[in-house]
Design goal:
Blueprint: H1 5-125
């Protein structure tokens, strides 16, 4: 059986319409898949961004804590240095007083020796 040109034309139009519909459906599916892939990538990028920000905040907090510790240690070191300087000055002042007391005691001892010698000579003369 031979088909008439009209039937062939109708068949070809039907096939073309079905092919167009299939192509459109395939294009929609591909577009939906691309859209879903883009959404997944966007979600992953957002998660990475959130993770990056969280790490950045943690690092900043750790840096600030380390800086605070360092500052406290520097203050403590300065305080200890000042205390050592004060102790050194107090020791030097004590050593000066002791030297003055020694000199004074030596002078007193010398004066007492002289007085004793004078008294001893007087006693010998009497």
């Amino acid at each position: 059986m031979t088909r008439s040109p009209e039937k062939w034309s109708a068949t070809l139009r039907c096939v073309a319409t079905e092919a167009e519909a299939a192509a459109e459906a395939a294009a929609r599916v591909a577009a939906e898949e691309r859209s879903a892939a883009l959404e997944r990538r966007a979600k992953v990028a957002e998660e990475k961004s959130v993770e990056f920000e969280r790490r950045e905040k943690e690092e900043k907090a750790a840096r600030e804590a380390a800086e605070a510790k360092l500052s406290a240690a520097e203050e403590e070191l300065a305080s200890q240095k000042a205390a050592r300087e004060e102790e050194k000055e107090a020791r030097e002042a004590a050593e000066r007083r002791l030297a003055e007391e020694r000199e004074s005691s030596a002078a007193e001892i010398a004066a007492l020796k002289m007085d004793t010698e004078i008294l001893w000579r007087r006693n010998l003369q009497n």
